[in-house]
Amino acid sequence: HHLPQQDRALRDSLPLFLQGLSVASSASQLQSSCLKQQLRSVITRYLDHFLPAAPSTGVVANHPVLVGACEAAPTTQGASLRRTILEVLCERFLQFKSRAPPPRLSSVLMFLLELLRRNGDTDVSLLTLPLPSLLRCLMLVNEPQVRKTSTDALQLVVERCAAAAGGPCMQMISALRLFVEENEGVYDRQVYGVLETVAILDPTVVEALIPSLSLSLRNAEHKRGLGKNITLRSAYVKLLGLLGEGGQAEITSLEGD
């Protein structure tokens, strides 16, 4: 993979430049918003510039934006840079146009996975930033590489959040609840499928959604006006089967409808 000389120079100096700009943007209140804007535009530009069209572990692993964001032990400064990179990723590189996936999705997800994997961040508010994008990828994309990388990244986020929260993670539950609300009535069965993936990793966060999921199901049936929606119910029961005693109790309650 031959890089032109200018790109080689850029690749070598960009990590330090990003770190410096990130430190400067959080240090000086006065110029802060201007520098933050500049940091975001540099990240956007070079994330794009060095991102391969087809996913390549070697190219992504040496991406200068990734290299600049990785550290052996997390520091406040490093976490601040990673937060900005995650925001840029979600706003610019992981936006779906209705159902159509963004370009180079596999490469973007590989970058995201590497960013999470190579840093030991435990701040739940940082870890849950990419969650809505990951859930959407799993809901709308069937391409095996995308599903595999999304699932790996999701697993990392769910496990670290559970460890950091020491119990059901509230930010995680809020993000999942929002995901359900945004897609109910349109992608109900796909939503159950995505929640199954989450439930296998951490049933407690999905169990917290049971009351609102059941209400949503009954509302959908009521709106349809055709009695029980058997297809939807069996998909929901399959999900509930992964949720321990709470799930079993809800299955019994549904059978009594």
Q: Please tell me the overall pLDDT.
A: 94
How far is it from the N-terminal to the C-terminal residue, by CA? Answer: 62 Å
Contiguous low-pLDDT stretches (5 residues minimum) are none
Strand-and-helix sequence, N→C?
HHHHHHHHHHHHHHH
Structural class: mainly alpha
Tell me the Rg in angstroms. Answer: 21 Å
How many separate domains? Answer: 2
| Annotation field: number of helices | 15
- Overall geometric form: elongated
Question: In which range does the helix fraction lie?
Answer: over 70%
How many DSSP-defined strands? 0
> How much β-strand is present in the residues?
under 5%
* Largest sheet properties: none
Domain MMS22-like C-terminal: 8-243
GO biological process, one term: double-strand break repair via homologous recombination
InterPro entries: MMS22-like, MMS22L_C
Organism: Nothobranchius korthausae
Quick summary of this structure?
With 257 residues, this protein is mainly alpha-helical.
Key words describing this protein structure:
single chain, 257 residues, mainly alpha, 2 domains, 15 helices, 0% strand
Could you explain the architecture of this structure?
InterPro entries: MMS22-like, MMS22L_C. Residues 8-243 form the MMS22-like C-terminal domain. This is MMS22-like, DNA repair protein. Pfam families: MMS22L_C. One of its GO terms (cellular component) is nuclear replication fork. It is a single chain. It is built from 15 helices and no strands. The radius of gyration is 21 Å and the shape is elongated. Helix 1 crosses helix 5 (76-93) and helix 5 runs antiparallel to helix 6. It has two domains: 1-166, no CATH class; 169-257. The chain has helices at residues 5-27, 29-49, 57-61, 64-69, 76-93, 105-117, 124-127, 131-140, 144-165, 170-183, 188-201, 203-207, 210-224, 230-240, 244-255. The chain has 257 residues and is mainly α.
